[in-house]
């Protein structure tokens, strides 16, 4: 039976997605997941969500998928042990070293690789499996054939996003540092936790610089104007039966940084879709297509708002640093 | 002492370039198998190449393709099979699955983990060390202190890029081909032989694009910090030169060879203004210090 994992970007979102039939909810730990703090939960909230889910017979996955500093690892391990003690059944992790530590410490928990692992082939999957992964998330672009081949050659749990890329552009989760190249700041909090503003891989929000307007071309003769660098993925539907037949074990609903109500409605939608698929050998999903188009629109609107906010932040941060540099230079001149 | 290395994609580049300032060459362009005569995709060129590099008195490391899909794996396997029978001094791997493949193919040569191996922690360095990795290129987002921590606590050698554009993104598809009307599977006509740039319409942001890889617009430049690198007992340095001219490779190599030779001989670096000016002249979008000092990658911190 496939597991539908839904996002828990807020405590309310967690409750809503469990109400709508998600089999598991995934929640980010403040400072330890690939999203900004406003879409991560405090320890108190996480404990509450675990209790709520357990009472309903559902599971919680804890997202700790930053690529941390080496010096943070003892703190990472301590946190993992704490959440497992509270009843968390699994973790989403990017750093291979951390993955292996978790496997050695808590062999009974599920370890999902994060999209940050940047898997491209079945040998990657074998490597991750051998180093502690029980489930491997595959990138948006993989075909059903590739997924089936990976499942057959590795036997590992396969997780896919209910999200795919319709066309080209750079899609490279886990292998992109564009955001932090332009805006980046590092600081330690009172607990000794490192924070990396502007680096998605290290726990700051990706500032979506790829979504601003770029000119592109050889030297100065641009061939494209006002383009974005990356293509945005979209929710999908029709291939779902084929994915399940290929051996997909977990379906991940995206949207930790979307509104509670949009995520609630998407989970409700996919619950119905999955129930239809699981009740029939030849499911007819045509009746869901119009509804999906509405979700595409709602998603696009929320994404646009978020992207503009983040790009604005990137610009402000860049200007702040430039001003600081100018002030420092002026100070040197005065001295 | 120290090792200064750079990269060479093809036999033509190997013949044309002046690599006299370098101790070692990474052979192959890891981001694109279709790059013309790429060592990463052409086992037939490897024997001559390794012989040529050794004749120059340098080490030859073979780079393996960074983002192989399932259907690329036989090509990569074939390259490895050929290289295992040749006197390469090591492999460079970006894709963790290939570590597994090398192990199973009986490799005993040293392995270097490349920039897209995504190495952030000593815990991961210990994992890859178990697969035969002897040197790691820490993710560019790491500070110098973090790289040194990994070296000391794994322990393992670290490769420190000192000059050139910073690899920021690698993807499975070619951005240049896609955006110039090319269809998947169609001959790309080597459009990346021309420099391509991404420039933000309303600001000073710029990136260089080589098709399957996006690089920083500015050139990383650590010339003003050579003393500090030597004092930290770092000893493997790298000039990223993919997409650069033979003149760039030779000039940059000479400047850093001189600077490191002085630093390792205990001679103070002194005024590097003229050399810095020369390097700035080669950098179309200016110089930066990457993330080494905990700042945004495109900033130039300088000695102060």
From TrEMBL, chain A:
The record's annotation in SUPFAM superfamilies points to: Ribulose-phoshate binding barrel (SSF51366)
Q: What is this protein called?
A: U32 family peptidase
Q: Which domain of life is it from?
A: Bacteria
The record's InterPro entries line, in alphabetical order, gives: Peptidase_U32, RibuloseP-bd_barrel, RNA/ubiquinone_mod_enzymes
Automatic annotation (TrEMBL), chain B:
What GO molecular function annotations does the UniProt record carry, in alphabetical order?
A: peptidase activity
| InterPro entries from the UniProt entry | Peptidase_U32, RNA/ubiquinone_mod_enzymes
Q: Which Pfam family is one of this chain's hits?
A: Peptidase_U32
For whether the record's keyword set contains Protease, the answer is yes
What this protein is called in its record is U32 family peptidase
Keywords for the protein's UniProt record, in alphabetical order: Hydrolase, Protease
Q: Which family does it belong to?
A: Belongs to the peptidase U32 family.
Q: Name one GO biological process term.
A: proteolysis
């Amino acid at each position: 039976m496939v597991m539908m994992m839904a996002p828990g970007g807020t405590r309310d979102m967690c409750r809503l997605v469990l109400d709508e039939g998600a089999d598991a909810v995934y929640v980010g730990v403040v400072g330890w997941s690939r999203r900004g703090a406003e879409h991560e939960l405090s320890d108190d909230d996480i404990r509450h969500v675990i209790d709520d889910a357990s009472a309903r017979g559902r599971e919680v996955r804890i997202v700790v998928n930053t690529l941390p500093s080496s010096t943070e690892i003892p703190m990472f391990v301590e946190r993992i042990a704490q959440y497992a003690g509270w009843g968390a059944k699994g973790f989403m992790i990017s750093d291979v070293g951390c993955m292996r530590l978790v496997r050695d410490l808590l062999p009974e928990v599920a370890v999902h690789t994060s999209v940050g692992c940047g898997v491209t082939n079945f040998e990657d999957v074998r490597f991750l499996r051998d180093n502690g992964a029980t489930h491997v998330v595959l990138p948006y672009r993989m075909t059903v054939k590739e997924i089936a081949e990976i499942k057959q050659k590795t036997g590992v749990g396969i997780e896919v996003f209910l999200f795919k890329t319709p066309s080209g552009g750079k899609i490279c989760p886990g292998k992109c540092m564009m955001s932090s190249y332009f805006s980046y700041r590092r600081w330690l909090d009172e607990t000794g936790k490192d924070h990396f503003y502007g680096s998605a891989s290290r726990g700051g929000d990706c500032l979506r610089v790829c979504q601003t307007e770029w000119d592109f071309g050889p030297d100065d003769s641009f061939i494209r104007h006002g383009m974005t660098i990356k293509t945005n993925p979209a929710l999908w539907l029709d291939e779902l039966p084929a994915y399940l037949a290929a051996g997909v074990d977990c379906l991940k609903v995206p949207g930790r940084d979307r509104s509670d109500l949009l995520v609630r409605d998407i989970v409700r939608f996919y619950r119905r879709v999955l129930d239809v698929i699981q009740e029939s050998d030849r499911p007819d999903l045509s009746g869901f297509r119009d509804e999906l188009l509405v979700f595409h629109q709602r998603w696009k609107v929320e994404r646009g708002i978020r992207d503009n906010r983040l790009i604005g932040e990137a610009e402000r941060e860049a200007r702040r640093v430039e001003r600081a540099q100018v002030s420092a230079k002026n100070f040197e001149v005065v001295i | 002492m120290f090792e200064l290395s750079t990269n060479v994609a093809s036999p033509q580049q190997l013949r044309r370039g002046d690599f006299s300032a370098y101790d070692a060459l990474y052979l192959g362009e890891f981001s694109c198998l279709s790059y013309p005569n790429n060592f990463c995709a052409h086992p037939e060129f490897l024997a001559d190449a390794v012989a040529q590099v050794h004749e120059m008195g340098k080490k030859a490391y073979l780079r393996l393709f960074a983002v192989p899909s399932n259907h690329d794996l036989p090509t990569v396997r074939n390259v490895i099979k050929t290289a295992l029978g040749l006197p390469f001094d090591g492999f460079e791997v970006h894709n963790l699955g290939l570590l597994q493949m090398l192990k199973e193919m009986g490799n005993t040569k040293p392995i270097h983990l490349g920039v897209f191996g995504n190495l952030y922690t000593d815990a991961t360095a210990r994992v890859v060390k178990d697969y035969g990795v002897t040197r790691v290129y820490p993710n560019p987002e790491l500070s110098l202190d973090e790289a040194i921590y990994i070296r000391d606590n794994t322990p393992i050698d670290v490769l420190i890029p000192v000059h050139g554009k910073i690899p920021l993104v690698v993807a499975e598809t070619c951005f240049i081909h896609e955006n110039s009307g090319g269809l998947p599977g169609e001959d790309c006509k080597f459009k990346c032989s021309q420099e391509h740039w991404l420039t933000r319409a309303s600001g000073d942001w710029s990136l260089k694009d080589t098709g399957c890889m996006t690089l920083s617009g500015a050139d990383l430049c650590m010339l003003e910090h050579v003393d500090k690198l030597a004092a930290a007992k770092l000893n493997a340095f790298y000039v990223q030169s993919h997409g650069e001219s033979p003149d760039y490779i030779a000039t940059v190599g000479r400047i850093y060879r001189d600077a490191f030779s002085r630093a390792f001989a205990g001679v103070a670096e002194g005024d590097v203004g003229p050399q810095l000016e020369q390097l700035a002249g080669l950098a179309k979008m200016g110089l930066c210090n990457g993330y080494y000092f905990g700042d945004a990658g495109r900033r130039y911190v300088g000695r102060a």
